[in-house]
Amino acid sequence: MKIIVCIKQVPETQEIRLDPVTHTLLREGVKSIINPFDLYALEEGLRARERQGGTVTVLSMGPPQAGDALREALTYGADDAVLLSDRAFAGADTWATAFTLARGITKLGGADLILCGKQAIDGDTAQVGPEMAAFLDLPYVAWARKLTFVDSEVLQVERLLDHGYDGIEVRLPALITVVKEINEPRVPSFKAKLRAKSQKIPVLSLPDLELEPDQVGLPGSFTQVVKVFPPPARGARELWEGTPTELANRLWTRLQELKIG
Amino acid sequence: MNYLLTEEQQMLQELATQIAEERIKPVRAELDEEERFPTEIVQDLAQSDLFGVIIPEAYGGLGLGCLENCLVLEALSRACVGVATTYAASFLGAYPILLFGSEAQKGQYLPELARGDKLAAFALTESQAGSDAGGIQTVAVKDGDDYVLDGTKQWITNAGEAETYTVIAITDRAKGARGASAFIVESSDTGISFGKKEKKMGIRSSATREIIFQNCRIPADRRLGKEGQGFIIALKTLDYSRPGVGALAVGLAQGALEESVHFARQRHQFGTPIISFQAIQHMLADMATEIEAARALLYAVARYIDSQPKDFTKQSAMAKLFPTDVAMRVTTDAVQILAGHGYMREYPVEKMMRDAKILQIFEGTNQIQRNIIGQALNKEFSKKGK
Lengths: 261, 386
Fold this sequence. Notes:
The structure holds 2 protein chains of 2 kinds. By secondary structure, chain A is of the alpha/beta class. Chain A has 7 helices and 13 strands. In chain A, 40% of the residues are buried. By secondary structure, chain B is an alpha+beta fold. In chain B, helix 8 (278-306) packs antiparallel against helix 9 (313-343) and helix 9 (313-343) packs antiparallel against helix 10 (349-359). The radius of gyration of chain B is 21 Å and the shape is globular. The interface between A and B is medium-sized, with 9 and 16 residues.
């Protein structure tokens, strides 16, 4: 089974700074990490390999230093890593990012299973995974909290919902985005760390992907971040269970307490 | 301090530190409180290849030496000596096989220990045989192609959790110090059973139990080395493992120092952080200086051992003695600096002080270490004819 795990290098700090003109993230001087949700995707890829055999390739699009994130992914036991990097890719929105990554996957000969974190902690869009599936014309399931292989071609997925989960069966090849409930990522291994130190990470550029400059990066993007602001905090919510009478009584009491009734 | 570690050694340190920070620190108080064996962390350590540090590459290990072993132990014990002891005790059990095992024995047992699929334990101590290993009562009687073991080992770290035991038993009492032999016993052998988990002052997540041998029959090819080599095997094993105890001590003391400095900078009294008082500064200064001295001694001895000298018993004893005494003083002072907070289980230093005490006791009390060093000095100077 050929498994591709897409990862993103993100700034570690919570105190992000933005470019006042382009509204994109300023990354200079900020320590970078693998997007935490992607580590769950990587772990799930490694577990799928243990069950089904095959290889795990980690893929990322980003500046050359994103190679560090890929090298770190190798220390967890991924077989190889590929970086999509070109100045022309800069400023990509989720469309252009997903388009470029999808092309990268096609250039790598496709995959039986593509895994992504549910979203990145910097952009928080949760769009790139599903968009890639659309470009690749593959089925996808987002927010997976459990994967079970029925056989080498069919995957059972539990999709996390607010108050429960959906049971979904999907035919491979497919793309899955995972939530942190899905597993506990392993620790790196020393032997993999030694291997990763000298392992070659191929870099694919715009010509390698056979794309035009206006299909990628800022020119290939349909959206632009105009303003970034913290959303207003939602008030505290409570979930009550009980018979209609109990709930009605409880609600009436609470409304009186809150001096609304 | 820069100890001129190689890139590989630094990577090992980083990995052990990552496991200590991410996996051990968050649960150490809970493991201690519940006296719970750290099964999940043992799995993490296995996944990380760290159970292979001293095992040769030919047997699936990393083929590294005493210094690398010390670096890992130090990094782990900075978070929790209880967990680090569980890990270290597996090496203690592996050393006799590594040092004295036949090719067949090494091929059978070392790969699974290197992978961390199985844990090992070393069984020497008995109720009448502590510092005086000559008091061993457990016997191994040759019976055809087998040995039959009878007796009880006491306070054995990892007993009941490990699958592979290296056991010292008497094969010929008349021969005195040459009357003991070493054996590999498996937890699945008939006639081996374990006592209840002992309730301890510190390192409470580690498992300490009695091992009871009742008519425990093992094939003769489980004997390590020659018959009568048992005490030599035990002493050589301890020569190799004692710097590891020193490493546990350095890591523990470092952890206690860090908690102390952090607290002293946060805690305000008389309108100022208590680190601004000389009384506190001087305590911290002594702690930091003693830890650095202990670390420098430990690394120097570890490097000396890795140079494969013929005899390093004295140096090995020093590398256990000094750091463990330092750890006891440093953790006691850490509780003093955190004072009321330090005495509460909500803060980690009271556990560190409880954990420190065992380091002065196990693998030879510090009084025994002083005996070893003293006797070595006597021997050295008698050779020089002075």
